[in-house]
Write a structure and sequence with these properties.
By secondary structure, this protein is mainly alpha-helical. It is built from ten helices and no strands. Helix 4 (51-71) packs across helix 5.
Length: 190
């Protein structure tokens, strides 16, 4: 068997992300993905034997890239607030620039297809992010609440800000990003 073509892989991934944004994960079919990717359905089945395997692999690939994007530039030498601010900004940029991919990840994470293995995989990838939240609690910078609640608050702030920017209610500029982060920070700190 010849190796899988990277260009076809990217086309399959993008077609899947776009279709999930349009029809949702439940309505997604292999034939639709193949058509949107510009390949034969039989070729898609060579790459991925089933929809379950396709969406699981795409989730793992997308989550790996997302975790790296989120932690980009978050060095231990930065002050604590600057590290959290950097993560918040990275999350916002990722959500704005990779909207279809984000929608796919969120739908898959909350779907019946999401496996325990992928839950563990996701948790491992996000360990640095969770550790940063715990560090803030240990230093009594962040509220002493369950870490999942802290992360949900931070991610929720990003999600809502991105939604306002995407719909044109708010501009996509650095001053707004600073203000939105400051509001989020005030809600998180002890």
């Amino acid at each position: 068997m010849k190796p899988k073509d990277d260009e076809k892989q990217r086309a399959i991934a993008q077609a899947t992300f776009d279709l999930v944004g349009q029809t949702g994960l439940s309505g997604l079919t292999m034939a639709q993905i193949a058509r949107a990717a510009g390949i034969a359905t039989s070729t898609l089945y060579v790459y991925y034997p089933s929809k379950d395997e396709l969406i699981s692999q795409l989730y793992q690939d997308a989550k790996t890239v997302t975790a790296a994007r989120i932690m980009d530039g978050v060095g231990p030498g930065l002050p604590y607030r600057a590290r959290v601010r950097r993560i918040w900004g990275n999350l916002l940029r990722h959500r704005l620039d990779q909207h279809a991919e984000v929608v796919f990840q969120e739908q898959y994470y909350n779907s019946p297809w999401f496996t325990e293995g992928n839950r563990e995989f996701s948790t491992r990838l996000m360990a640095g992010f969770f550790a940063l939240m715990q560090e803030g609690q240990q230093q009594e910078i962040l509220k002493a609440v369950p870490v999942p609640l802290l992360t949900a608050s931070l991610i929720g702030s990003v999600r809502e800000t991105a939604g306002l920017i995407r719909t044109g209610v708010l501009p996509d500029d650095e001053a707004l990003h600073q203000t939105a982060f400051s509001l989020c920070w005030d809600a998180l700190k002890a």
